[in-house]
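Recall that a protein's primary structure is simply its ordered list of amino acids. Everything else, from secondary elements to tertiary packing, is in principle encoded there. The following example makes that idea concrete.
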Amino acid sequence: MSALDIGVMDFAFDNSFHRSMGGFYAPADAAKPSMPELLAINHLLADRLGLDVGGTAKDELARIFSGHVLPEGSNPLALAYAGHQFGHFSPQLGDGRALLLGEIIAPEGARYDVQLKGSGPTAFSRNGDGKAAIGPVLREFLVSEAMAAMGVPTTRALAAVATGDRVQRERAHPGAVLTRIASSHIRVGTFQFFAAHFGADHIVQLADYSIRRHFPDLAQAANPSLALLDRVIGLQCELVARWLAVGFIHGVMNTDNVAISGETIDYGPCAFMDRFAVNTVFSSIDANGRYAYGRQPQILHWNMARFAEALLPAIHRVSPADVDAAKALVDAIPVRFRTIWHAQVRGKLGLGGEGPDDSELIDTLFDELEEHDVDFTSFFRALAMLLRGDGAMLESLLPALDAMAPWIAQWWERIAHKATGPLEHAAAMDAVNPLYIPRNHLVEAALDAAEAGDLAPWLELLEVVRHPYALRQGHERFAAPAPADAGPYTTFCGT
C-alpha cells in the first residue's frame, strides 16, 4: 500500500510507540475496501486535533479513513495485549481488527492515537476477519460522542466510512471502518500480556513509557510504578462513577477493555439504562450478569487488582516493601469509589456539600427507583422541575402520586437547609443531569435505518445527544422514556 500525500490535511505524525516500543506490537496493514464512502466526519474533533478535513475532498477522506491509502508518516501496527475475559485469562488477544496508524500532537499539546477499527485482519486476529459492520461502527460513533458531551472521559470517533463490502456475522451486513482517537490504546491487558510472557524488564519499560506519555509528574515519585497504580485506580474510580451517574452499562469490562488513561474504550454491547434496576444487563454474552449496572464498581475493583498484579515486578524492583503498599491501594478501592460516587449523586440531587445523612438518602433513593420502576434519566430532571413548582413530570414517572413521598420529603428538607434557593438548585441539577441520551429504542431505529441506506435518523440523533442538557422545542420524543410495551433489550458485541 502506498502512502498518499494529502496536502492540506497533514497529520504530522510523531509515532513514539512505534519508535521506542519495538517488541510491543506487530506491524500490520489494512485490507483495501472495494468502494469506500464517507458516512460521517467529526468536524469539531478534527479542528481540535488540528486536522483540516474541510480542505480535503469527501472521496479522499473516505480513502484515508478506510485504510485504502495511508497518510504520510503513518506506521501502521497492531498492539499486543492479553486480558481477563469474563474472569478467564486469555494470554494473547491484541488488535485483531484494528490498526494504530500513528500519533498526532494537537495544537494544545496533547498527544493522541489515530486508529482504524475494522480495517482487516492482523497477526492477532485469531482466524477472525478483522472487519466491522456498519451497526457497531455507528453505535460507537454515536455513543462516544454522547459520552463526550456529558463530560465522561472517552475515546472519540473521528470518521466512519462504509467499505462497500459485506461482513458476515449472523447474516451479511454492510462493512464499515471507524477512525478512533484516544489518548493512547495502552490497556490493563497490555501490562498483563508482557507480565505473562516476558517479565520484569518489559513491565518496567511499559510502565516508564506510560508515565512519560500520560503522567509525567509521576516520574519523580519515590516509586513511579506504585504511583502509576494509584493514579490509574483514581481515574478508573472517577470513570465508573460517571458511568453510573448517567445510567451507562459498558457491557464488557474485560481487562483488555480498560484503558490506563481513564477513558471509556471499546463500545461493544453497551447501552443506557431506561427504568432503573441495579442488575440490568443488555449484553447477549453476559448471561450471568458479571457486568451488570450495579456490579461495575466491583468489576472495577477486580480489574485494578489484576493491574496491580501485572505491575508488581516493576514496583518490587524499586522497593520490595512497596508490594504491601500496592495491596493497600487495591484494598482501599471500595471506600475510594464510594466517596467519588456519593459526590456524583449529590451533584445530581442538587445537594452541594456533604451532609451527615447522605449515605442513607442516596442508598434509599436507588431502592425506591427500582421498587417503583422509574425511568433513571428522566427522574433527576423531574426533581429539578419539582423545585420549580411543577410536579407533572415526576407524577408521570411514578405509579402513584405518593409512591416516593417519604424520600422526596427527606430530599426536600435537605435542599431547604441550603442558603441558595430552589431555582438555583434546579439550574445546578439540569447542568449535570442529561435530558437527552442515546435511548436504546432510538439507537436501534437509527442503526436499522442506516443499514438500509438512510443515515438521516442517525444524524438527527447524533445532533441531539451532542447537546444533552438544554431543553429544545421539537425534541420531545428524544427525551421521552422507552415505550411501556418495549420488550427486553439485547445488545451484541459485533465481532
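Residues 1-8 have pLDDT under 50 and may be disordered. The two ends are 26 Å apart (CA to CA).
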